[in-house]
Amino acid sequence: MGGHVFVSYTAADRKWAEWIAWVLEDNGLRVVLQDWDFVPGTDWVRRMEDAVLRSDRMLVLCSPAYLSSSDYGRMEWQVALRADPAAAERRLVPVKIRDCTVPGVLGGLTWIDLTGRGEAEAERFLLDRLTAADSGRAKPTERPGFPGAEPTGAPVPRPDFPGRLPPVFNVRRPNPRFTGREHLLARLGEALRSTGRVTVASVRGLGGVGKTETAVEYCHRHATGYDTVWWIDAEDPGTIPAQLAELGALLGVAADPGDAVATAQQVRHRLARQDDWLLVFDNAEDPAGITTWIPDGGRGAVLVTTRRTGYQSLGPVLEVPVWERAESLEFLTERRPDITRTDAEHLAETLGDLPLALEQAAAYLDTAQLTPTRYLELWDKAGDRLLGRGHATGHTQTVATVWTVAMDRIAGESPAAEVLLRVCALLAPEPIPTGLFTAAPEPWPPVLARAVEDELEFEDALGILASYALITRDRDTIRLHRLVQTVTTTSTPPPQREELLRAVLASLRAACRFDVTAPAASAWWRGHLPHVLTCARAGLRRPRPAQSARARTDASVLLHATGRYLGEIGQVGQAVELLETALTSDTDIFGPDHVVTLTTRQDLAGSRGETGDPDAAADTFADVVDDCLRVLGPDHLHTLIARHNLANWRGRAGDPDAAADALAALLDDCLRVLGPDHSQTLTSRHALARWRGKAGNPDAAADALAALLDDHLRVLGPEHPHTLTTRHNLAYWRAQAGNPAAAADALADLLDDRRRVLGPDHPQTLTTRHNLACWRGEAGDPHAAADALAELLDDRLRVLGPDHPHTRITRVNLEYWRRKAAL
Hints:
The protein has 823 residues and is of the alpha/beta class.
């Protein structure tokens, strides 16, 4: 065995590289090692390529750190691969120094596995395998020694064998079921890579997210890169000096009896004159509590784990998120091989992919001998109590207690932040618009009301919650983990919980965009919908003594508005469900003849009609008209609206002539009672034009809509949804009157405006796409019609579902235009 060897490695494995290089040079080889041969001033890329090409063999030291590091290692072995693409000369040899999965081209080569071997065995195995790579055969030249024997020999002045832990190392054992975090560990390795000075990096995240576990794993994976690794519990800064003094005893630092602080400073000065050390400050609260103890010299690293903000001034801060769903499933499947994919998904979703919660659940499943299905059943009944069950290995706290200290501190620092957190816990586990709090400050308790009225105080309150990692901020929204919400809600006294729910409902009602067709309403509803639903349902679930009449009214009104919005965007099935609940509540609160109840009946009837039963809708509206005439009189706005809806649904039930006649009579009354520019008058004109067209007079419909469009532009403006609808229907009736090409052009222009104003998934935007495709087909391009309808069908299936009438219509028309295109 002879020649030149190039060693490719990452900085985290430097000690392995040096040990291997020393062994090989002791045995007559010439080794090129970056730390030894790439001296300052070297052209790194040219020197690397030249060294690789001149070398007889390249050893690639494979470890998780190497495989997740930068592309430089890949650049090195790809040069070697180009020189021996068929591996005939065995120039590229992977050497496994830590357990890892070797991917791609390297994974296809036979490797030298040094993992789990003692120093003498590792040296002998390495040399034997390299000799075999030279000869092409691995048969030993002499009888192997007994594998149980422990060879002895005099120590030699060469680098320590890196397969053992450093002589000074106090980190607990790693979690044997440590899951995922490979990208985070790789980024942490990059951040702590020695630059000839002290490097500091922090990992920050929510309690229970796995910061400490990640730090422990890092220490063990990178232990061979350090001579000293010392773990310090830093939550109480007053205990740090004593822990550093313990380190001093192992380093041979003379102790100052009775003065741990003085001894700790001596340790700090000793480390400043040494290299290859790592200090870990776990669960640090205040940066000021640890900066005193960071050495100001030496080639070492400091790793901080914390929930708090404020560490950017020390070095990079890496956020630790909850597990990716795939990581949660991997963990659960390993812990419970019998768990089904469905139960694992449900459990991960329920626990928000929080590592501590999933470990706790797995432990409880084991100790209580529960099936995952039974655990989920219990969660639905007593989830808050389950958060205190089960003990996760390596953790002294449960999810039920892990945030308690933070909440107590927040209450002392900022009462407004505490109330804000408890309010957020009542909302949905979705991004919360901060405008929800500032839009209407009056309903909030005084301590929070004062904060939201002062922009700086409100930012301070948000900042305190973010500093404890209990919320995350993203522009104009904040978000809580679902289990933070559960624990916070459980810890809120019931009377305070009811008071805060009343305030949330009042604030939502004050800010609600009840005109669900207005252009600005869509953006408001997209941000607030989950929170309106969560709070309105909670308000109506409470027994009457627990909630005031005002709160129940607010909840019912919000549920009604939500049903109208969902109907407007095409989710009619859910709209019907909500409006039925709202009608029951309105009847209970206001009585059957109140205008609020009558209005809810109308909206419910319309939504039921949209599900595909126009006859039932017409019958319901006939009853509503009778009740409106009896209770409100013939000229009341709600009576006129009920008459309009009755005529419309009679037309949709198959009688366009009756619909047109009824609307003509209604229009006269609207002009007399409301005037020509009232929205209901304009709406009646629109409906009358439609049903005259349906009754067989498309020219009259087009003329009426052209006149109406002028009035809509003047009264409502060009971007109002009613104006856009009039443009759409005008194009439709012009096509029906014999000009499909003009209709297609008009709808193409309209589609751009509807996408911009309403959004791409709004039902009216989808309807415009449908009609544009059909009129392009009628204008002579069946292929374009079929292609456009195929794309539209995918979106309607996604937005509306397979059973919505509009989805079925698109499917039928797609088949029609595909047949036409095939002729």
